[in-house]
Amino acid sequence: MRKLKLQMQMTIDGFVAGPEGQLDWMWLSGDLDPTGLQKVIDLADSCDTLLMGRGMSRGFIDYWEKVVDTQPDCKEYPLATRMVDLHKIVFSHSQKDIKGRNSQMENGDLATVVKALKETPGKDIMVYGGAKFASSLISLNLVDEFYFFRNPVAIGKGMPIFSAQKPMKLAGTTEYKSGKILEHYLPG
Q: Which of these, 7, 55, 145, 157, has the minimum number of CB atoms within 10 Å of its CB?
């Protein structure tokens, strides 16, 4: 059975975005060092499908396709090629189609579709966000592994992804030169 992995950037006070979805805090501690970037690539390589909510899909798809098409010397290029090549499923209740390479729209029931995807052959499935979509997956107990890149910054208020108590087991941590820490958790 395939696993659903959630990978997100998070502040030390537990937010994944500012109150209006701002992500500017992610760059306050700098980029991940090459070791951290390689970890993100390795996690992407363990998956062949990417799930996301409609809200983040346009920016995500456009950003990575632009890097692949116009920035071959960019340090993110190896990750960009993976993001473009991954099969992307975008969930929406209202939008019927999505433009982007290897992208498709899904309007079905989230729990039903994800449970069926987990039963199909293939590599694992990755989720990068957004906040509301990740929160929905968590509240439905669909996430099998959590990977949080904890940034050394507090923002005071913002968007959480947990709406209730969620026991977790720490599976490991890795500290990076930038001060970011990768926390790997399994459901408790």
A: 157
